[in-house]
Amino acid sequence: MKAITQTCLLSAALLTVSVSARATEKPGTLKETFKDRFLVGTAVNRGMVTGGAGFRRSPEQTAKDVALVKEHFNQITAENDMKWQLVHPRDGKDGYDFGPADAFVNFGLSNQMYVVGHTLVWHSQTPNWVFAGTNPPPTNATGNVAANTNTPATNQFGRGRFGGGFGGGFGRYSGPRASRDELLQRMREHIHTVVGRYKGKVKSWDVVNEAIADGTGTNVLRNSLWLEIIGPDFIAKAFQYAHEADLNAILRYNDYGLENPAKRKKLITLIKSLQAQKVPVHAIGSQAHLNVSISFETMDQTLTEIATLGLPIHITELDVNSAAGGQRGFGADIANNAATTQGGLVSDADKKLTDAYAGIFRAFLQHRDSVKVVTFWGANDANSWRANGKPLLFDGNSQPKPAFDAVIAEAKKASLAK
Ligand code: G3I
How much is the pTM? Predict the structure, then answer.
């Protein structure tokens, strides 16, 4: 009887030990778990780096968000504050607003993070003054301003979830235009000033963002005012200027929807042509704004084909939309955001998100020679541009979701984590 009681007590004690060990056992952080393979980053917003309230976040919530960023991520990208519209809103020598971008860079450096600059040349969020001049805009046969052949329109925000955009929206600029030389001069001055200011601190730049046309049409490049005024070599020029400004910075071409074979083919055509001209493109940024239909096979094929360019691949804006409205494509336009986050979540959303992330990370781990950076577009669901689609590994209270566990489990399978 005594022996039985002792055995019972012993097993009860062992049970208590193992339960409490499990309760206190913390899964590894993202940055620690993947440190031998790639950096794990996140986009950060202004509130996080300035210590104030964030967009739709109280100071207390922002403080918690910052704790999450520091715990799990070793790389940061400014979600908005280095875009031309925000960092360089006005013409002239007093035209720059560096405060928030400086705060972003200081935040990264003081937390020993790899700092990425986003973005130098983009069809969107560029103020009208950049394109303005004295040349009349081209007209088509009916006398109207020439149509933009690739929707969505260039240089505009649309009317997405955020409305007009940064306190006063603007449509595509349709007034008299700068000449090619004027626009190149403005681009060069902007790139030299911004890249030069953070030389040696910002390690990598998204030099040209989203220049490739969507769809299966024959145009490789999206129509934009950059393309119309300068011509296709606006891309080569931007890289050349960025390289002049910081010889050591890793210069990326960054685009979305590369999981789509037609768009990927255009990327490969574009980058091969730049490589043939010895343009200093050092890495491919694949945004990876995905939805829960993404599979390991699609991601594997995508990475296999991009890797043929012989450049490192940086996953630059990862998220996986679980909203019903967002299951039709891998687009990233803010103008379509309302549509792609409506309709509630798909059925069994948590499981689908978990499976999707497991497949994506399995592919990243298998492409160990190419994938060097994986950046989430937001640290938790509450900060996501697609908050309604609950697309990230942490919920709005920064609690890890099952998808987080799945990602760590993939690392274990690849013998990265204990
Ligand atoms: O901060 C202002 C706020 O003061 C104002 O009251 C409110 C009203 O409209 O707007 C707020 O700004 C919004 C900002 O996001 C806040 O985070 C802008 O309107 C809105 O246009 C802006 O959207 C950003 C979007 O790019 C357009 O620049 C998203 O945050 C950002 O996540 C998104 O990121 C892009 C990448 O740069 C490039 N790839 C696609 C990706 C998703 O669209």
Answer: 0.91
